[in-house]
Specification:
Helices cover about 15% and strands about 30% of the residues. It has a twelve-stranded mixed beta sheet with strand order 8-11-14-17-20-25-28-31-34-37-39-40. Strand 5, helix 2 and strand 6 form a beta-alpha-beta unit. The protein is flat and about 80 Å long. It is an alpha/beta fold. The protein starts with a strand and ends with a helix. The chain folds into two domains: about 100 residues, Udp-n-acetylmuramoylalanyl-d-glutamate--2,6- Diaminopimelate Ligase, Chain: A, domain 1 (3-Layer(aba) Sandwich); about 210 residues, 3 Solenoid (UDP N-Acetylglucosamine Acyltransferase, domain 1), CATH 2.160.10. The mean pLDDT is about 95.
């Protein structure tokens, strides 16, 4: 169990303690659910009533917070309570992960593989031949890592992930449970008799640094070359990324989105849930796409906002929706005229 004094926490966050600096905390909780030994935060004013009843040992608050009633908890005052609490969560998670090191006796590692210092390999992990794993990588139970895979420093691979042969994972990546990296691309050549002949998919998947992949998301290997997810991109759960797709830097994509083969999505895009992309199109940088949209053609204008299926500029989409709501009344009036 990791324990910290409030003084240590305040130093970590660049804040000051109001109360007992020697009080200890060992867990993090919501302000309305916190118990003794936990630390919470208050950033949204609507949660202020809870600070007067919370059992938390300490609450992180903004520097200008002025209590309206007596408090029964310690305070850590910071410039931005929400940002400070986020930093605390990151530090707490990192410390827990850093405490995990070593290779389980029932993990299986094939010949020729090299593991860096501080690596954690959990029970029932399989690591193939000639795999390179960097420093302080964490690999959780029932993970499969194929031959010739490369995983760089400080990456976390959660339980049940499958990384097929030859794929490349960068530094500080997080791949959540059940994700599949490098599965065969969906490529088939139609035959004269109406059947389909599978096209070998001999490329790889590459995730650059600081990429996050959600649970049960699948990223297919390229037919040739690589399927590429660039630095800082964040993929939610249950996303399908087809072969030879390119996803730009710091683009975020919500759950249940499907991206067909050879589509290129730009940098700093924001894509809602259940969006569908046809193949072989491009999406410009800083594009915003609303949930359940269908992207059927290239989007060339940088910074545009799109919605609908087929997608159209968002401002036009809302005008169309306003007209659609009036259609029953317009239809009734047309029938009266006839």
């Amino acid at each position: 169990m990791l324990k910290f004094t409030l003084e240590q926490v305040a130093q970590m966050l660049g804040g000051t303690v109001e109360g007992n600096p020697h009080a200890e905390v060992f867990t993090i909780a919501k302000i309305q659910e916190a118990q003794e030994g936990s630390i919470a935060f208050l950033a949204n004013p609507k949660y202020e009533p809870f600070i007067y009843t919370t059992q938390a040992t300490a609450v992180i608050v903004n520097q200008d917070f002025e209590p309206k009633q007596a408090l029964h908890t310690n305070l850590i005052r910071v410039k931005d309570a929400y940002l400070a609490f986020t930093r605390l969560l990151e530090q707490y998670q990192q410390l827990k992960q850093d405490a995990q090191q070593g290779i389980a006796a029932n993990a299986h590692i094939e010949e020729g593989s090299r593991l860096g210092e501080g690596v954690y390999v959990a029970p029932f992990v399989y690591i193939g031949k000639n795999v390179r794993i960097g420093k302080h990588v964490k690999i959780y139970p029932h993970t499969f890592i194929g031959d010739n895979v490369s995983i760089d420093d400080h990456t976390v691979i959660h339980a049940g992930v499958k990384i097929y042969e030859g794929c490349v994972i960068g530094k500080h990546c997080v791949i959540h449970a059940g994700a599949v990296i490098g599965s065969e691309g969906f490529g088939f050549a139609p035959q004269e008799d109406g059947s389909y002949h599978p096209i070998p998919q001999v490329g790889i998947v590459e995730l650059e640094d600081y990429v996050r992949v959600g649970a049960n998301t699948t990223i297919d290997r390229a037919t040739l070359g690589k399927t590429l997810v660039k630095q800082g991109a964040k993929l939610d759960n249950l996303i399908q990324v087809a072969h030879n797709v390119i996803i730009g830097k710091h683009t975020v994509i919500a759950a249940q989105t499907g991206i067909a083969g050879s589509t290129e999505i730009g940098n700093h895009c924001m894509i809602g849930g259940q969006v569908g992309f046809v193949g072989h199109i491009k999406v410009a940088d800083k594009t915003i796409i609303g949930a359940q949209s269908g992207i059927l053609d290239t989007i060339s204008e940088e910074g545009g906002k799109w919605q609908g299926s087929p997608a159209m500029p968002m401002s036009k989409y809302y005008r169309v929706q306003a007209v659609l709501r009036k259609l029953p009344e317009l239809w009734r009036k047309l029938n009266q005229l006839s």
